[in-house]
Design a protein that fits this description.
Helix 1 crosses helix 2. It is built from 3 helices and 2 strands. A two-stranded parallel sheet has the order 1-2. The radius of gyration is 14 Å and the shape is globular. It is an alpha+beta fold. The chain has one domain.
Length: 101
């Protein structure tokens, strides 16, 4: 995969920083702890928030991501809007009824 530009890397890091410093689990055994993104979530966020057009705007404005149940789909869904100033974001996450592996 192509490397991100410095500007894209900064935008991607801003989103990750938002997840890891602002968002907290609200219930369960991790209640009160910050979110820690999984490797596959980092890759998706790199593409969605770090891949830029030549004019500096995000390349991808709409995404459909389907993930098997119990694989961390709720965390990115909860925070995608909060880490960006861009009001044109549209993300569609779906937990499929199939289990992973």
């Amino acid at each position: 995969m192509r490397e991100l530009t410095p500007e894209g890397e900064a935008k991607y890091r801003r989103v990750v920083r938002f997840f890891e410093t602002v968002l907290r689990h609200s219930k369960g055994q991790h209640a009160g702890e910050p979110f820690s993104l999984l490797p596959w979530q980092h890759e998706i966020f790199k593409e969605l928030f770090g891949r830029l057009r030549p004019d500096g705007t995000r390349k991808h404005r709409v995404a459909y991501i389907e993930v098997p149940k119990k694989n961390g789909v709720l965390a990115p869904t909860a925070g995608c809007r909060g880490g960006q100033d861009d009001k044109a974001n549209q993300l569609f996450w779906r937990a499929s009824p199939f289990t992973c592996c």
